[in-house]
Every structure is written in structure tokens, then in C-alpha cells.
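Lab notebook page, bench 4
Experiment: in silico fold of construct C2
Operator: M.H.
Input chain length: 154 residues
Purpose: comparison with the prior construct
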Amino acid sequence: ASPAVNKLDFVILSALEVDKDFNVNVISGSDGVIREASGGHSDTAAAANVSIIVAPLTRGRIPTIIDKVTTVVTPGSTVDVVVTDYGVVVNPTRTDLLERFQKAGIELVTMEKLRELANYIVGEPKEIEFEEQVVAVVEYRDGSIVDVVRKIKR
């Protein structure tokens, strides 16, 4: 029998951060501190026919759409749509969805436009400084390592 995630048509997931390559972070905050486990985030995004990430453009004074996520948990290749309170972005690899959204009259924006808007609203975020020491490893559903979490410089 196949796992339930392999039978999903759609999945709607949240994110702490999304980057211009559609990579998603759900475990470490904008300060680099590990917040929680990812649950089935990457599993459901990869297995569903359409994966939708919903997140506010900013949280307080912190942008959600950024150049590069602090920690890759869900690779952008498995994310189809990102929905924020300032616009919808379809992954360019999903030309089928781009056509359907355009036919439906849904106004689309680019990830770059959302990133620029987030930075305009809250300012350019200060880059986190990390030490070389690895404190956690992010293992993908196939057993490969997609990222590591490093110790924060204090």
C-alpha cells in the first residue's frame, strides 16, 4: 500500500521563510534558532499533485520572502504556488498552473517583486552569523541531506 501523502491532490502548507528559488524553511526562525520539527512538510509537498505555501509577506518586522532561506527543509522544486497577502506566485516550472491561473484571471506576481516589497516594508534583514559547528542535519524523504543548521555566533 502507498503512503497517504502519495494520494494527495493538493496540500496547503505554511512557511517561516520562502526564498526566490521557492525553497521553504519551517524549522528555524529568522534568528537562526531551531523552532520546531518539520513534520511532513517536505513529504506532502513532494507527493501532492499541487503544493501551495501560504505565508504573510512579513511577520512583524521580519520579511517572509527572502533571497535565501536560513534552512532548506522543503526544496523549491517541490513547491508549486506561494500565496501571500500581497500576491500569488506560481513556480515557473509549472507552466500548466501558470496557464490555468491566467485563464482564471488570477493576478500573478514574481518572487522578486514580493521580496522587494517585503524589504521595502520592513527593511533589509541583517544577515545571521553562524559558526562552523553543525548542530542539526535536515534529512530529505529519500535520505539525502538537504541542509544543515549551524551554531549561531554569540
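Observations: Residues 4-127 form a domain with the Glutaconate Coenzyme A-transferase fold (CATH 3.40.1080.10). The helical segments are 41-47, 95-103, 111-122.
Next step: discuss at group meeting.
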